Amino acid sequence: MSATGNRTTSRSTLRRGIVAAAALPLLIGALASCGYGSEAEKDEPKAADAADAGKKLSAPEVRIGYFPNLTHATALVGLQEGLIEKELNGTKIKPQSFNAGPSEIEALNGGSLDIGFIGPSPSINGYVKSKGSNLRIISGSASGGVKLVVNPDKIKTLDDLKGKKIATPQKGNTQDVAFLNWISEKGWKVDPESGKGDVSVVRTDNKVTPDAFKQGSIDGAWVPEPTASKLVSDGGSVLLDETALWPDKKFVITNIIVSQKFLKEHPDVVEAVLRGTVKTNEWIHANQDEAKASANARLAAEGGKPLDAKVIDPAWPSIAITDDPLAATLKTQSEWAVKAKLIEQPDLAGIYDLTLLNKVLKAAGKPEVSDAGLGAK
Fold first, then answer.
1. CB under 8 Å to 155, separation ≥6 — which residues?
2. Beta strands 252-259 and 115-118, pairing class
3. Which whole number is the average pLDDT over 305-331?
4. Cβ neighbours for 234, distance < 8 A, ≥ 6 positions apart
5. How far apart are CA 114 and CA 125, in angstroms?
6. How far apart are CA 224 and CA 26, in angstroms?
7. Peptide bond just before 226 cis, omega within 30 deg
8. What is the DSSP code string of 252-300?
9. Is 20 exposed, middle or buried (0-12, 13-18, 19+ CB in 10 A)?
10. Are 84 and 7 in contact (CB under 8 A)?
11. Is 356 exposed, middle or buried (0-12, 13-18, 19+ CB in 10 A)?
């Protein structure tokens, strides 16, 4: 379904769902169908203020990739509410959902994707493997939203992780790299390829992790939201929030990347998308409950049912939505991957091009953001 179709359906559903939501405020289904009607419309950003009225952009469509994760809330809400599409003056969005970073990078490299929401580790890997020729990071999107959740009957302290089986989403993904670094700092040894060692690192798809946890085949998981809160709802306990490991409790979990070819040929479209993401993030901050419901509605469209309130309610506030790519933290994550012997020392010079983002931020009266010295020359 197109973003416009999603928005139209969402708006009409909102108005029908107000009474039900008032009667059943704890049901996530009501939350997903209710954007709080007139308030949502009142606070919604106006589209035409930043675009040249009636001027068509240089591409008929833009293909945007994202994951069905709450850490991709900018994409979920921006598509669901049509806030990105409004900036495009008739250029159509072709949304594409991915389950893992490597498949999204492959789509970008293969020319079937133009812009993507993705984690820092796949961004680094994709940039390095192409020798800096395939992508640029053009914006941030989210910080945080990653937790270590364990079986409290088996693991009561961080030291108890030794000898246990802990899941991460994928070898070399952002959470895998962070967990391997944490293990190393404890002085424990794990082979990064096999995951075997003082802790067994079990690479498991986030869709499978909750069942593996319930069945006892893993003792815990270092995972993003909403998987972390799903595990908690199944009896798990949060042993560590990754934000506690970072200065200022901030670290990039989701970037926005673009094909260098698309950026060169269609900078007007890229700028319009960034206007949409900046306005989406502004709307999310101003309308937290409506934004949470909107993200859940998009997840329901992806997976067939919304997240339960006991999952989305604790998950949502643990994610910080931001335009800032927090570039210095990406540099740190690359150093962790090198230390874990997952990649060789990368040359990340040029991985960022924040020119259009800073142009959009300046026009919106917002402070510009830094590329930590890793910008395109």
1. 161, 164, 219, 220, 239
2. antiparallel
3. 96
4. 210, 213, 214
5. 18
6. 23
7. yes
8. EEEEEEEEHHHHHH-HHHHHHHHHHHHHHHHHHHH-HHHHHHHHHHHHH
9. middle
10. no
11. buried
Helix (H) or strand (E) holding 342: none
Mean of per-residue pLDDT scores for the chain? 87
pTM, rounded to two decimals: 0.82
Residue 303 vs residues 13, 141, 170, 243, 244: alpha-carbon distances, Å: 19, 22, 20, 28, 31
Instruction: Look at residues 15, 76, 20, 21 and name the one whose alpha carbon lies nearest to residue 40.
Output: 15
Q: Counting every residue, how long is the chain?
A: 377
244-279 tens-digit pLDDT: 999 899 999 999 999 999 999 999 999 999 999 999
Would you state the structure tokens that stand for residue 81, as one six-digit string?
Answer: 């509410």
Helix, strand, coil proportions of the chain in percent (round to 5)? 50, 15, 35
Place of tokens 């969402």: 10
Question: Among 257, 208, 255, 238, which residue's Cα sits nearest to residue 318?
Answer: 238
